[in-house]
Write a structure and sequence with these properties.
- It contains three helices and 21 strands.
- By secondary structure, the protein is mainly β.
- Strands 4, 5, 7, 18, 19 and 21 form a six-stranded antiparallel beta sheet that branches. A four-stranded antiparallel beta sheet has the order 6-20-8-17, with no helix packed on it.
- Strand 2 and strand 3 form a beta hairpin.
- It is globular.
- The protein starts with a strand and ends in a 5-residue tail after the last strand.
């Protein structure tokens, strides 16, 4: 059964116009509602929204209970004193062995050696069916100018979080420490089209630095932006736009100038890995990170290999990634 979302307004549907997502989550789980709760998101699909996601549709009676829980929720932080027993692996001295799960609530583990197919044939989802994470160098390629550079481009159909991964080369003898791998997140320029009637949803503001910032307009702007194609650029709390971390939907920030993202009319490229040597004697290169990196569906992950050693036979690099994503169905 598919997850089902029930959306409420923080301002209009709660007792004090405030919400504490963790406490509301606890209240729902402790209620008489039969269907299992998946998670509670606040301020994601819209700044005022509470999105309550169940693992299946709930009954009319349970929806009445849910309405009452939200209406009675006062937004006051509850800090109970708990006696907690954790059934977990432990060392000989009794200390618990704890491994944190770095992904966002509601995201699932997904191992993949490819990006997504963004235009799949229904009912296929296209997940993991796009460009393979693999680059080949042929002995017959032109190596008259070194390095010979080859790249691939991956994209995902929904927001994902990259955690770690692995790359392998073969034959090992055809690879040198001078052969280098780089990985970047490419954020294409957002296109703003002139609206001659002054009814656009955006305005273009020059920065004087050779590019423009695109800011929201309330139907009276000089430009139009197709938000489904917009490319959010992290702005560290100084932007004009928000991007939903679950759906990727871009919307005007309710707090202009304090939003999480900018929209820019230039391409931005951010480094993940820069000039990593591929000449390991084992032929395997592992990446094990402790944090995750968010990738918006309109961003592109670019992998480039600069090959300096001229191979005597065809040789290959291939890899896979551990990512987290909200959906994993085929």
């Amino acid at each position: 059964m598919a997850q089902t979302t029930y959306t409420y307004s923080i301002a209009n549907d709660t007792l004090n116009g405030k919400v504490q997502g963790g406490d509301l989550d606890d209240q729902i789980r402790a209620s008489a509602i039969v269907t299992a709760l998946a998670f509670v998101n606040t301020g994601h699909s819209a700044a005022d929204n509470i999105d309550i996601v169940f693992k299946a549709a709930i009954s009319a009676g349970d929806e009445t209970i849910l309405d009452g829980l939200v209406a009675a929720h006062d937004g006051v932080v509850v800090k109970p004193t708990l006696n907690v027993h954790l059934d977990s692996a432990s060392e000989d001295d009794g200390k618990l062995v704890v491994v944190p799960f770095p992904a966002r609530d509601g995201f699932k583990t997904f191992f993949t050696g490819a990006g997504d197919d963004l235009a799949p044939t229904p009912p296929a989802s296209g997940r993991g069916q796009g460009t393979a994470l693999a680059i080949s160098f042929l002995a017959s390629d032109d190596y008259s100018t070194l390095p010979l550079s080859k790249s691939l481009e991956l994209q995902w159909s929904e927001p994902v979080q990259i955690h770690d991964g692995q790359g392998q080369v073969e034959p090992v003898a055809e690879w040198s420490v001078k052969d280098l791998l780089s990985m970047t997140a490419r954020l294409p320029a957002t296109v703003a089209v002139v609206n001659g009637g002054g009814t656009g949803n955006a305005n273009v503001v020059p920065t004087g630095l050779g590019y423009n910032i695109i800011v929201p307009a309330a139907g009276n702007g000089g430009h139009d932006v197709t938000l489904a194609d917009a490319v959010p650029v992290p702005a560290a709390g100084a932007g004009y736009w928000e991007a939903d971390p679950i759906t990727g939907v871009v919307s005007a920030s309710p707090t202009p100038g304090l939003g999480s993202y900018h929209l820019l009319d230039i391409q931005v490229e951010a480094l993940f890995a820069n000039r990593i040597p591929l000449g390991q004697g084992t032929g395997v290169f592992d990446i094990e990170a402790y944090r995750v990196e968010d990738i918006h569906p309109n961003w592109k992950l670019i992998v480039t290999i600069d090959k300096y050693k001229v191979p005597s036979v065809d040789c290959d690099w291939a890899g896979w990634l551990l990512i987290f994503r909200p959906n994993t169905s085929p």
